[in-house]
Write a structure and sequence with these properties.
With about 80 residues, this protein is of the alpha+beta class. The protein has one domain (about 5-65). It has helices at about 30-40, 65-70; strands at about 20-25, 45-50, 60. A three-stranded antiparallel sheet has the order 1-2-3. The relative contact order is 0.23. It binds zinc ion. The site of zinc ion has 8 residues, from loops.
Length: about 80
């Protein structure tokens, strides 16, 4: 795979956003953690962090409402 430094950062081990190795991890605010621990419901994340599953480097964050909503939606059984 060609590396193009102008098209987004790559992490320490060479992955970039859109790669399966880069996970979208919801990050919660303080209040979000309280809701999560006390009520057992999934709060709306404060933002989504794009983080490599291997080296844990964060490649960026998104506050895209569509991404946040996707993380808030309860899992279908
Ligand atoms: Zn990596």
């Amino acid at each position: 795979m060609k590396k193009d430094p102008t098209n987004g950062r790559t992490c320490y081990c060479g992955h970039r956003r859109g790669d399966p190795a880069i996970h979208e991890e919801p990050e919660y605010s303080m209040w979000g953690w309280i809701v999560l621990s006390m009520f057992g419901v999934t709060p709306r994340p404060h933002h989504i962090a794009f983080r490599c599953a291997y080296c844990r480097e964060e490649l960026g964050q998104s506050r895209d409402p569509r991404l946040l909503a996707r993380r808030t939606t309860p899992r279908a059984a």
